[in-house]
Amino acid sequence: MDYILLVLLLAVCFANATFIRIKSIAVVIALLIFAFWFISNMFTGNGVNDAVYYHLRSNVHGTSIDDILPKVFAASIFILISIAIIFASFKFRKKLPRRNATFYNVLFISSLLFFVFQSNATQNIYNSLQNLSYGNGVKVARQYNSVDYEMNKKYNYVFIYAESLERSLRNIDGINYIPQISKLADQYLEFTDIRQIPGMGWTMAGMVNTQCAIPLVLPQGNSANNMSHFLGGADCIATHLKKSGYTTEFIRGSDKEFAGGDKFFSQHGWIYQHDKQYLLNHHVVNQNDISGWGVHDDSLIDHVYNEFEKLSTSKDNFLLSFLTVNTHPPAGTYLSACDGHINAAITNPMFKSASCSDYLIGTFIKKIIDSDHFDNTIIVLVSDHLMMANAASKELDSIQDKRRNNFIIIKKGIKPTKIAKPGTLLDVWPTILDISSADKPDFGFGHSLLRNEKSQILQSWEKSKNISDYLGFSSSLWNYPSLNDKFSFKDGKLTIGQQEYKWPLFGTADKNKNIKSIYFEAFALNAQRITAEDNILFYINNCSVTSKSKQGLCGYELTHNSTTQYQINEKGIFNRRELNAVSPLFSQELIGISSGPLNVQTGINDNIQEQTMPYGINFYKLEGENKKIKLLANFNTCNNVPVDVNAVKNLIGKDSSTLIIASNESVFCIPYETRPSVNELLRANAATDLAPRQQIIGTYTKSDTKFILGSPDIPLDVFINKTNYKLNELCTIFKDCS
Fold first, then answer.
1. How do residues 670-724 score in pLDDT, each as one tens digit?
2. Helix, strand or coil for residue 410?
3. Is the peptide bond before 330 cis (omega within 30 degrees of 0)?
4. What's the total number of domains in the chain?
5. Residue 347: inside a domain, yes or no?
6. Where is 662: in which H helix or E strand?
7. What is the dihedral of CA 263, 268, 272, 275, to 10 degrees?
8. For residue 552, how far is the Cα from the chain centroid?
9. On the chain, which terminus has fewer CB atoms closer than 10 Å, C or N?
10. Which residue ranges does UniProt annotate as crossing the membrane (predicted)?
């Protein structure tokens, strides 16, 4: 339906020339909203969800290029179509009819509103934002249990994360694509109703869900790479097994850094991590054994079994876990090792890869069962999440409501049983502990599926499709420190309490100075938006960025009544001063502009609207009674497009209004022929010595140009007064210019 709505919207837009440019911009905005949904759906198969938001903010190191390229291609197509629509609105405006303008304009507005409120894309994005918001974790805090159990007997554990290998694959149009796993499930203990709710649905989430029994949520405004601790407040199973003398080892064929995984495992009880680089460095595999997502499963599983034998002959108990990769979307990777071992009639590449993985995992499990070490070993198989968009999405969509994750426990002597009690991946380890005769198996928000207690988080989801309070509690487990905690800056590392951070670092704290949110980029863009009436806004950065006279690392705390300044060294905070002076952030109407190099968040925000910023030099103007920001012109000087100063002067208009100048990414790239035009614009020779990725933000009038220069490769944050256009650099905001 969305395609029909967009075509209808485009047709009505060009049916009449009246307001054609405004209408075309509205169509492009609608198209880009749809594009965001479309590309997200290519990734997830379920449109925009928390997996999309997580990976937008997390490290993508280790992502398969083969997986990314189709998304980049799709994005390029949408951008080209958008450009074509805008171009056509200017090119053919005079050739379009003007009759029946009222009728067509009403029809256009009606079509636009219908798209906004009825399209699948907008409804999905709205719902995803609802799920992304966090509620009051205090309401469910009593439901959260720490790991606290005793067992009379210690078992060894082999825990298998089968990438995307969901239970649903055993019956699609009457075909079982995972017969080996199905046969094992029939012989041991299987849980048939493992559902997927928010905070689940991607690999990193599946690992946190199972090991810590909590949904995974983003640290607000944060990337795991900028923090030293990954979910520092979470109580996870491997930590306790390690304390009980277990050797813990995790093996994956992908890069361990992907999505912050290396930090999670190293900080939550895992002694050893073997990833793609480890396997290459130790000559376990070579480049022929690697595809886009990592080491092929046949080579990986051979290494896992060797580790199983080695650990089984040691005196210590162990937890050995591994993650497969060859069933990763979009089409998986079929391996020649499976030739002759799967149904030859399977042609769909995703189903073929799934059947191959089934054979390899099934053979591995049988090998352990037939070994001398099975007596004291419990094998667990789960799918880390339901399959995202892939070559078999059409078939999977036909059974969407019946899709479930795999959860199988294989233990010698266990009675073959199928348990239909509804659960989630949060219930996996509590159930394993129960099988292991733990006295108190439940922890986190998870419950043993062998007991009568019902999962309260699942009940909440079934009742209201909302688990925001649980997400709020999980968010608190990122353990933000307090501004009252000890600060330290030593060897280039900033520590607050027990947490280590990169900088610049800013965010909000409550009246007791407990940090509520943390951000790392685009201070000017975000500052006014995140500052609520009762919040303290804090900011920490190199003093050279914020002060005219100080060196080292500077910190600031701003309220509606005061400004506090301090410096940080290895001993803590020193030179602390509290000024009875209010920052312009609280006392003036400001426009915040953040510009910077590639891969850094940039944009312009007047606390009413926020806009992204094109590369090169941009010119904005405040228009109308509300003084809304409008982008008037962009000159991509990095691509050797000079600034047309005469055209810029014409932008000022008869009212002699002031233009706002803001660069982004890089003013200059090689060659440098555009320097004279920028010098003419600035009415100075500043461009002569301007380095690549050195930013400019300022104002331009018929008679004067005022500007602030940043430092090369360092983001620049500037605030501009909406009334008098005064430039406020950061030292002004923090009252530290003298």
1. 776 889 999 999 999 999 989 989 999 999 999 999 999 999 999 999 999 999 9
2. strand
3. yes
4. 4
5. yes
6. strand 659-664
7. -40
8. 31
9. C
10. 6-22, 29-48, 68-90, 102-121
SS3 assignment, position 388 = coil
Q: Final residue of a domain: which of 100, 132, 164?
A: 132
Amino acid at 358: D
For residue 336, the model assigns a pLDDT of: 92
DSSP H helical ranges for 101-222? 101-118, 120-132, 179-187, 203-212
Q: In this structure, are 290 and 164 located in the same domain?
A: yes
How confident is the model over 542-570, as pLDDT tens digits?
A: 999 999 899 999 999 999 999 999 999 99
Assigned domain for 731 exists:
no
Q: Which of 453, 476, 499 is the last residue of a domain?
A: 476
Do residue 529 and residue 412 come from a single domain? no
**Distance of alpha carbon 708 from alpha carbon 730, whole angstroms:** 11
pLDDT per position as a tens digit, 724-734: 999 999 999 99
Helix spans in 609-728 (H): 645-652, 675-682
Q: Are residues 59 and 74 in the same domain?
A: yes
Chain centroid to CA 152: how far? Answer: 42
pLDDT at 365 over 90: yes
**pTM for the full model?**
0.61
The residue type at 147: V
CA distance linking residue 718 with residue 30, whole number of Å: 31
Looking at the fold, whether 570 and 715 belong to one and the same domain comes out as: no
Output the pLDDT for position 221. Answer: 37
Sign of CA dihedral 47, 198, 161, 450: negative
Q: How many CB atoms lie within 10 A of CB 137?
A: 18
Q: Which residues, at least 6 apart from 278, have a Cβ–Cβ distance to it below 8 Å?
A: 256, 284
